[in-house]
Amino acid sequence: MAVDRERVAALVRELLEAIGENPDRPGLKQTPERVADAYSEFFAGVGADAAAPLAHTISVTRGPAPDTLPSGAVMLRDILFRSVCEHHLLPFRGHAHIAYLPGERVVGLGSLPKVVEILSSRPQVQERLGEQIADAIAASLDTRGVLVVLDATHECVTMRGGRQTDASTVTIAARGELAEPAARAELITLMAGPPVAPRPSGGRGWPS
Q1: Range of the domain at 32
Q2: Which of 17, 48, 76, 196 is exposed most, by the fewest CB atoms within 10 A?
Q3: Distance CA 130, CA 123 (A)
């Protein structure tokens, strides 16, 4: 479902008028169209199939290296994501860390960020986003367990209300064998290790 840019632009113009601004002044004249373009990107995941990137899997027993079977978890950490909080329509952004215990089939690592991108590109709350990522992976792959940790900063926390500029929110979603805290403790430790890239949120120190 594509964003209706013309309708968004018209509503943004009305919003500017509602806050007492003049949408025809030079600085705001192109704002409705700019916001419509931005919303087309921010909400491109509305109605999209988050499982689609996971459709192509690789057999670990009949694949290119059948004698190299995974003995532990497959992990991809520090996946950058951004989304829009559905409560205030303000952005939140951070890193997603994903691990799963593969069965007979695995998926290309590049598919995991695509799942995050689709599900984050819609009005969201962080708690639900992590659960949806875990559900998509668990339902699409032959996994024994899935773990998704999201670490993000929310502008509804940092820029309004108490304005806690250093606060970050951590959520954990787990499926299968990794639903047990003891089973996922090692993975949580690895995910919370030194970041591989500059981070928009605070330091790590997550519960298991």
Answers
A1: 5-41
A2: 196
A3: 13
Is 204 within the bounds of a domain? no
Query: Residue 203 falls within a domain, yes or no?
Result: no
Span 82-100, pLDDT tens digits: 999 999 999 999 999 999 9
Place of tokens 């998509």: 136
Helix and strand totals (H; E) in the chain: 6, 7
Q: Within this chain, do residues 26 and 58 fall inside the same structural domain, yes or no?
A: no
Residues 167 and 135: beta-carbon distance below 8 Å: no
C-alpha span between 66 and 201 (Å, rounded): 40
Q: Is residue 16 part of a domain?
A: yes
In terms of Cα–Cα distance, which of 60, 201, 81 is closest to 143?
Answer: 60
Residue with tokens 């329509």: 89
Residues 6+ apart with CB under 8 A from 194: none
Q: Which residue has the tokens 């593969």?
A: 102
The domain spanning residue 108 has which CATH number?
Answer: 3.30.1130.10
Which residues, 6 or more positions from 3, have their beta carbon under 8 angstroms from its beta carbon?
36, 39, 40, 43, 44, 46
pTM of the complete model: 0.88
Give how far Cα 110 sits from Cα of 104, 117, 150, Å: 19, 11, 18
Residue 84 is inside which H or E element, if any? strand 74-85
Which pLDDT score, from 0 to 100, does residue 200 have? 54
Based on the fold, state whether residues 72 and 14 are members of the same structural domain.
no
- Written as one letter, the residue type at 145 is G
